[in-house]
Design brief:
Distance between the termini: 42 Å
Strand content: 25-35%
InterPro entries: Extradiol_RC_dioxygenase, Glyas_Bleomycin-R_OHBP_Dase, Glyas_Fos-R_dOase_dom, VOC_core
Radius of gyration: 19 Å
Largest sheet: 8 strands, mixed
Number of domains: 1
Protein name: Glyoxalase family protein
Helix content: 10-25%
CATH class: Alpha Beta
CATH topology: 2,3-Dihydroxybiphenyl 1,2-Dioxygenase, domain 1
Shape: globular
Order of helices and strands: EHEEEEHEEEEHEEEEHEEEHH
Organism: Gracilibacillus boraciitolerans JCM 21714
Pfam family, one: Glyoxalase
């Protein structure tokens, strides 16, 4: 049993319309599924990804209209990365972010890769990462109808960074339970803090890394709009997911058991520092209930919510996504 990499990252927005405008018009990602939070169908759940929503390319958002500000801190997923093909692509993005007046911090280097950290309109912490020297998990393919030229488009999710008050408990779960491998470290931005540790799974590379920042000077993060809810890791299929459930049960980690999300099967648990992990299968995928040419245009509901469609749509503010 080997996790194949990052499956998706799910975050919080307070406004679905503004979120849709930013991630499709500014970042050029494709909305591949406009659906609802299956645990609370009163809120949108929006999935942005590559042309078909391949596993490892999905950056998703729950709309929580009353979400307050995020007070950044410990016990959090503190950065999400988005992959681009090359260092040259980062130069395109630096100009584009300036054009759209997006707060960014210029091109720099992290763990031997060129990166471009920035924030969305709600303070979501994101980093564009160059795949110039990547030899690991393959990237996705940007949507050909994106406002961003395909050669510069976002190709998937890169490393996520966790910020925790104590490294060892989280490291044990990643390495001893989930099978990640320690592959190095790099200096923290804050003087006097330990180096940030890097772990990889599967084929490795930008699509299969977790970075852990240990901080002894931060309070626990208070999440809100612009924070990350959870990170999911890729599992081949439902049969393998059941084996992961058995392994996690043997570790006496409280978990959700197998959950049918229709587009994939999932299992959720929290590691000792309180960060929510999900294991999710690669299939069946987002083309299960919509044609590939019309993904994300209508509100899609899994079969177990379809009989509540009228009630659900009445409670959602209409979001125009069919162009």
């Amino acid at each position: 049993m080997i996790l194949k990499g990052i499956h998706h990252v799910s975050a919080i927005t307070a406004n679905a319309k503004n979120n849709y405008d930013f991630y499709t018009n500014t970042l050029g990602m494709r909305l591949v599924k406009k659906t609802v939070n299956q645990d609370d169908p009163s809120m949108y759940h929006l999935f942005y990804a590559d042309e078909q929503g391949r596993p490892g390319t999905d950056f998703t958002f729950f709309e929580i209209v009353r979400a307050g500000n995020t007070y950044q801190g410990n016990n959090s997923i503190s950065f999400t990365s988005l992959r681009v093909t090359s260092d040259h692509a980062l130069k395109y993005w630096e100009k584009r972010l300036d054009e759209y007046e997006v707060v960014h911090h210029g091109i720099t280097e992290t763990f031997h890769r060129k990166v471009l950290p920035f924030q969305d309109h709600e303070g979501q912490r994101i980093m564009l990462v160059s795949d110039q020297s990547n030899e690991g998990v393959a990237a996705g393919l940007p949507w050909s109808e994106s406002p961003v030229p395909q050669e510069y488009g976002i190709t998937g999710l890169g490393p996520v960074r966790l910020t925790v008050p104590e490294l060892a408990p989280t490291e044990r779960i990643l390495v001893d339970v989930l099978g990640f491998r320690s592959i190095g470290s790099y200096p923290a931005n804050q003087q006097g803090q330990p180096d940030i540790q890097v772990y990889q799974t599967g084929e490795g590379g930008t699509g299969a890394e977790v970075h852990i920042e240990e901080r002894d000077d931060l309070a626990k993060e208070r999440p809100g709009r612009g924070s990350v809810h959870h990170v999911a890791f890729r599992v081949a299929d439902t049969e393998e997911l059941a084996k992961w459930r058995d392994k996690i049960n043997k570790e006496r980690l409280a978990n959700s058991g197998l959950v049918d999300r229709y587009y994939f099967q999932s299992l959720y648990f929290r590691e000792p520092n309180g960060i929510l992990f999900e294991l999710a299968t690669d299939g069946p995928g987002f083309i299960t209930d919509e044609d590939a040419d019309h993904l994300g245009e209508k509100v899609a509901l899994p079969p177990f919510l379809e009989n509540r469609r009228e009630e659900i749509e009445l409670n959602l503010v209409p979001l125009q996504t069919d162009k």
